[in-house]
Every structure is written in C-alpha cells, then in structure tokens.
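Could you join me in thinking about how sequence relates to backbone shape in a protein? Would you write everything just below, so we can both look at the same thing?
***
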Amino acid sequence: SVSVSVTAGTTLTKNVTLVLAQTTPTSSNLARTGVASASSTGSGRNTASKAIDGSMYSYWQSSSAGTQWLSVDLRSTKTLDRVVVSWYSDNYARAYRVETSTDGRNWTSQYSTTSGSRGSNTITLSSVSARYVRVYCTNANKGDYRIGEFEVWGY
C-alpha cells in the first residue's frame, strides 16, 4: 500500500512499481468433456465412455486380464494437475501406469506401480501439458479390469 499527500500548488513525481498477484486457474475434471476409448470392452454396455460419465454405478470393463488400456482425448492440450483412477470392486490393476501424450502416439509415463489397490487412487502431476491421458494396465487382480471413474483434473 502506498500513501501520498500533496499540498495544493505543489507537484510531486514518484516512480512506483506495481506487482500484480498471479492467480492459478480453477482446476476441473476435464475427462467429463473428453472422448474415451479403450483397448477392449468386456460387455456391450460397459464401454469406455462409462468411465468418464460421472457415475460410480457404471464402469468400463476390459475383455481380459492381460495388457489393457483406457484413454481419454481431452480435445485440446491442457495443463494437468492430477489423475484419479477409481477401480470398480475388486477388479483393479496390481500393475499399471498413467501416461500422457500430446499426439496420441508417443506416451510419457507420469506414474507407475506394481502394488495397485482397490478404491480410488489419486496421482498428483506437476503442471503436465497433454491432450491424451491413459491408464495402461498390465497385471489384474481378477479376471478383467473395471474402472468406475477416470478423472483428469486440470485447466
């Protein structure tokens, strides 16, 4: 804060540097407006889009327990700060990676585990720029993978 008082009939000149506070944009779940795709679908109704529909009562189901993936195209490059993978029931991946890409062909691993667990798993990212985000599963706890919600947070 700067306080200035000037007497009538005098001139005062002072150079002042203003520093503006930079605000961070509000983060939102970008997957909700994205387009989901997957390596496979276990049944006709449990498609990839069920993993980004905002409901834990629906889910994507893979056709097998082998290597499978679920991907979201965010439609343009965004700045990402976290990913949430919410597994449906006991059909989670013990081993999986969260990967990002700007072109959908070349992928960068942002997180990897060989000790995955059921429930919701939050992966924090450090301002990663990407258009595509996927969970790449390599070792299932049960006969297939089921993701109730795949959230991609950023701006």
User: Anything to note?
Assistant: The chain is about 0% helix and 45% strand. The longest strand covers residues 120-140. Strands lie at 28-29, 35-38, 60-61, 68-87, 93-101, 108-113, 120-140, 146-154. The chain has a mean pLDDT of 92.
